[in-house]
Amino acid sequence: MMRIPLRSSVGAGLGALVLAFAVIAAPARGAEDEAANQAKIAELIKNLSDEDADPKIRRQAAGSLAEMGPAAKPAVAALVKALEDPDFPVRQSAAFALGEIGAEAKGAIPALFKALGDPEARVRASVAIAISRIGREAKETIPELIKALVDPDAHVREGAALALGGIGPEAKPAVPALIKALGDPEAQVRNAAAVALGKMGPEAKEAVPALIKGLGDPDTLVRQNSAHALGGIGPEAKEAVPALIKALGDPEPRVRQGAGFAFARIGQEAKEAVPALIKGLGDPDTRVRQNSAVALGQIGPEAKDAVSALIKALGDVESEVRGRAAEALGDFGPDAKEAIPALINTLGDESPVVREGAVCALGLIGREAKEVVPALIKVLGDPIPFVREKAAEALGWIGPAAKDAATPLIKVLGDTESSVRVGAAVALSKIGRGTKEALPVLIKALGDPEAQVRSRAAMGLALIGPAAKEAIPELERLAEKDPDRLVRRSARTALETVRK
Length: 500
Fold this sequence. Notes:
It is a single chain. With 500 residues, this protein is mainly α. The protein has a domain at 50-199: Leucine-rich Repeat Variant. The protein is built from 28 helices and no strands. The chain has helices at residues 9-49, 55-68, 76-82, 88-101, 109-115, 121-134, 142-148, 154-167, 175-181, 187-199, 208-214, 220-233, 241-247, 253-266, 274-280, 286-299, 307-313, 319-332, 340-346, 352-365, 372-379, 385-398, 406-412, 418-431, 435-445, 451-464, 472-481, 485-498. Helix 11 packs antiparallel against helix 12 (220-233) and helix 25 (435-445) packs antiparallel against helix 26 (451-464).
């Protein structure tokens, strides 16, 4: 960062004084802001609870609390009481505010459950939406939400479906009712039902036939979210593949995007969609091309006929598509070896995300290709840390065949970024060279503030084995006391190999 020098020693002294004051004042301002916030909430609670006040004041108070979101948690009890206000717009506003507070309002669930029976439809709709935003904690409301799916008011039915989706897989008992809701006369309800079923994942597999029918709905959003729901169900929705192939030719881009998403989630079971997905790589819509590339990668080697098309996609005008095409080629492994020259060329892409995708692909494809290691060594000098880190990781994947990278990787052990240093150290462990230099880097990384770095460092030490005995005390500490479960597990794994 460029610094502008002060013009005199007096100016310098003043600048230092201002800086010091800012450092001292920042926490003070934070405390003052919090106090002001609490005072505001207290005032709004007072207004909301004033039964003698004009209902408009109570409505405004609830609206202001809604704007504060989760910060308004202290007002939950007052908002719960307001769900019984004689003025229905106040009840509606209170329900909306509880939804905006979200999961922090879980204490309101019993009252919201009761409020689903409010005589005013607009209140019931707001209550259902509030439950959807509180999410899984609201599972006790499932029976009442199922009843609400047949409410006379479409907004209530819509809200009930969204609330069941917010609860997720635990709302499985609602699947039959949601399947029925896919045939609702109102598009907004059909759409909400599709969204909800998608959020339940494989637990909603019995809805697959109804969702296939939804792919032909006259409403664009219903078709799109029917496709998304089939993707949410995953491989259990494989019978939908022929209908999804047809949806990949839908005139609406959003529907085609949804079909591509579904194929990616269905994965290998969608192999018959490969020709359609290859065609999707040339779609005029960026997201469709992107999703098509992801889907081909998730199908894996069964989609190897797409290699040539994916190589062409490495030249797409949109970086998101180029990056996904590179990743997909990596998913094919050695079956995509013809893509190596194009991927090496992609290492010079202007987008760091695309370079990262190309690096990973080369590490997965090119274990036997001599030209890959020198290309990845060059990337160790990339200006973007996560690209350097991935280059080190990719060299590690290649293993002993990347022995020529040992010296450059030892140099990278001095990188300014801890994640890059650890990546280089782990790579050296896998290559079987430079472990003496890598050992102190890995031991030091066991104390890194990032859990992922600590975990990777532990696994790097596991690769070194008994030669890393000096790391035992620190590994024992992590195995017993680290706050992260993955780090504790990695440390225990490392101890098993280091102690041999």
